[in-house]
């Protein structure tokens, strides 16, 4: 979803990566495939009203209200990082293409004016926040050093600690995501 900026914000861009959890097993991902978190076929149009940092209200968001804003919907289950295929129990092929989706969206936004930005910020929440961590260097590298580029993560930093049951649940979940989706974050220590 793209909302064009205006006035002194017309050359500034805010890209927000939606969150939506992760799927670390074929069964988990297969269950998501029939929802808006597993396929764009099931996404309903949304009104780009935004709140907080995405708001177009100059009183609520005085710094970014008139910037170009892109809200990138999430459906890959691996923080826009998957690039593999899997097979569900019913034989359906699952396509994990979050990395390609991220790259295609940013490429298209570059064509729509992001390449001429004087300021750009990449943000994300939860799984989108982790995606912001993962893609921040790539995002920054797309601009000349004269462009002010920032990345802001909201709730995307997940600690590798024991939960109340004494288990490292997130380690297991992330391990499953990386193993299943053969993503480019296989270099991370799990």
UniProtKB/TrEMBL annotation:
One of its GO terms (biological process) is cell wall organization. Its main location: secreted. The keyword RNA-binding does not apply. One of its GO terms (molecular function) is hydrolase activity. InterPro entries: PAE/NOTUM (IPR004963). It is found in: Secreted, Cell wall. The keyword Zinc does not apply. Its EC number is 3.1.1.-. Keywords: Cell wall, Cell wall biogenesis/degradation, Hydrolase, Secreted. Hydrolyzes acetyl esters in homogalacturonan regions of pectin. In type I primary cell wall, galacturonic acid residues of pectin can be acetylated at the O-2 and O-3 positions. Decreasing the degree of acetylation of pectin gels in vitro alters their physical properties. PANTHER family: NOTUM-RELATED (PTHR21562), PECTIN ACETYLESTERASE (PTHR21562:SF105). Belongs to the pectinacetylesterase family. This is Pectin acetylesterase. It comes from Aegilops tauschii subsp. strangulata.
